[in-house]
Amino acid sequence: MAHYPLDHHLRQPYRFLAGAAGLYLTLFGVLGVAMTWGEPFLHRGSDWVLGLRTNPATAWLSTLVGLAVLAAVLLGGNVHHRVNVVLGWALIAYAMVLLAFLQTEANVLNVSMVNVIVLTLIGLVVLTAGLYGKVGDRG
Fold first, then answer.
1. Average pLDDT of the chain?
2. What one-character-per-residue DSSP string does 5-36 give?
3. CA–CA separation, 117 and 95 (whole Å)
């Protein structure tokens, strides 16, 4: 069983950073949806938003993940801890899968190496916030 620090004194700054990461993902997704509106879902064009390549599939996925991170941050407590640990690992794994398909025809999400780097960093921020976000019993 893993040991997570309870009531860590840097819990709130980490939560703020996770919120910023979720906000970036949501903003990227919403702007990506707006920019790629009307294009095929798995379009492989040259659309860039906030420094990252995108298509409608990537934009919608980023919007949903960003909203999930923001919801967890707003709920706080152990919900924030559990959700962000899972989403942090999921984002890192997602980035590694994208890296594996980067130079192939399987790159249906139209990502570049910059996307992989940014997703890895965001995943690490969200994971770290989750690891230090556990709250103990108050009673």
1. 91
2. -SS-TTHHHHHHHHHHHHHHHHHHHHHHHHHT
3. 8
